[in-house]
Amino acid sequence: MGATKLIPHYTYKDYLQWQGRWELIEGIAIAMSPMANPKHQRIASNLNITLGTLLRNNTCNCQVYQPIDVKIKEDTVVNPDLLIVCEEIEGQFLDRPFPLVVEILSPSTRLKDEVSKFELYESFGIKYYLMIDPKDDSTKLFVLDDEHKYVPQHHFSFDLTENCTIELNIEEVF
Q: For 19-42, how does the pLDDT look when each residue is reduced to its tens digit (9 = 90+)?
C-alpha cells in the first residue's frame, strides 16, 4: 500500500494572507524567485520607459504596469514582469484580460513562463504575450488568433485598442 500524499489547494483568500512574493497557479503556491539580476532589471526598465513613451505619444488611455496581481481565477494569481492595461484598474488586482503581457525569462522561471503561463495567458484571452530571454537577447512574441490560440508574430506592432496601435523597436530594450 502506497503512502497518501496531500497537496494543499490554495485560493486567492489564502494568497492574501501570505508574507513575501508568491504566485498561485491552479491552487499550487509558488514562491517568487529571488531579486532579478541586473540585466533582467535593465531590460524591464528599458521596456517600461520605451512602452510608456510610445503610449504617451498616442491618443489612448493605456498604461504600463510592473508587477501587479493578475487574478485569472479564484485559485490562480500571477505577477507578470510587465503588462499594458487600457482601462482603469479598480482594487488591488486585475481580473480581466488586457492587451499585452511580458515575461522576462530567467533560469528559475523559464519553464513556468514558457509552458504554464503561456497556457494561462492564452486561455485568459490576453492578446499579446512577449517573452524576452536575457541569456541571448532573443524574443518570442505570440498573438491570439481567431481560434483563441497563440501563434508566433515576428513584427512588434501591437493593436492595443481600436484607436491605439504602437510599434516597438525591440532593440531598444537590450
A: 989 999 999 999 987 778 899 999
Give me 7's grid cell.
Answer: 497537496
CA quadruple 126, 14, 37, 109: dihedral, nearest 10: -60
pLDDT of residue 3 exceeding 90, the answer is: no
CA atoms of 102 and 82, how far apart (whole Å): 5
Name the one residue in this structure whose C-alpha cell is 501570505: 18
Domain that holds residue 92: 36-173
Structurally, the chain folds into a number of domains equal to 1
pTM, two decimals, is 0.93
Q: What angle do CA 168, 60, 117 make, to 5 degrees?
A: 55
Q: Are 21 and 31 in contact (CB under 8 A)?
A: yes
> Among positive and negative, which fits the CA dihedral 142, 134, 80, 116?
positive
We report the CATH number of the domain holding residue 74 as 3.90.1570.10
